């Protein structure tokens, strides 16, 4: 349903302030001079929109269970300004990326960035308001080592936090959404140590223990294929993988004499 509002101005050149509820409005002015001549003027239409847009989707495309990646991550974002009474349309979708190595201190990885949403600027003409779409789909691509404070050292974590928000053409700002994941492009460091000393550099007269150490921030023992062979049938694991320090893990095998 539509409602009309009448405002009377007695003096020419006077500014008029009209309080509208949310919705699409048409402003018609009627001007009468002192001898009764009448003229009309009409706007193309205006939108009163006091409701903020929403980020209804922000998720990683093709994500994995561990949420750890060694190549570019693409995040699908959907912003909506589909209000019941009226929407001014999505003017921009913006994001910022932060990084942490201890999950406590967050630093800027990529500064605030505005995505192209194929819109005019947030200041639009009356006619353009009605051409803006209420829903906008965009994607954000984040590459490892593309920003500041990234670490490629084994054992270092690169925890990423992508913060997304949007603005509508009326200047309302959506509540921010956050997507978190980890980057890991560093190869694990492996160290193999044998106890005892050899006779003539290759002969031993007692059992020999080999210790394998792995430095890796995202350690997973199921991803390690350790083959310890011997002439008489192989070596026996006497200590399964266990942490011995920060991001350092150790396993032991024995070669029987």
Short description:
The chain is an all-beta fold and 257 residues long. The chain has one helix at residues 126-129; strands at 23-25, 28-32, 38-42, 46-48, 54-60, 68-69, 73-80, 90-100, 107-115, 135-142, 158-168, 177-183, 189-194, 208-215, 236-245, 248-255.
Report on this structure:
It is a single chain. The protein has 257 residues and is mostly beta strands. Helix content is 2%, strand content 43%. The chain has 1 helix and 16 strands. The chain has a 5-stranded mixed beta sheet, with no helix packed on it. A hairpin with a 6-residue loop joins β8 and β9. The radius of gyration is 33 Å and the shape is rod-shaped. The chain starts with 22 loop residues before the first strand and ends with a strand. About 3% of the residues have low confidence.
- H/E element string? EEEEEEEEEHEEEEEEE
Spatial strand sequence of the major β-sheet: 6-12-11-8-9
Mean pLDDT: 80
Radius of gyration: 33 Å
Taken from the alpha-carbon principal axes, the silhouette is rod-shaped
Topology:
Layout: E1 23-25, E2 28-32, E3 38-42, E4 46-48, E5 54-60, E6 68-69, E7 73-80, E8 90-100, E9 107-115, H1 126-129, E10 135-142, E11 158-168, E12 177-183, E13 189-194, E14 208-215, E15 236-245, E16 248-255
Parallel strand pairs: 6-12
Antiparallel strand pairs: 1-4, 2-3, 5-7, 7-10, 8-9, 8-11, 11-12, 13-14, 14-16, 15-16
Features:
257 residues; four-stranded antiparallel β-sheet; 2% helix; rod-shaped
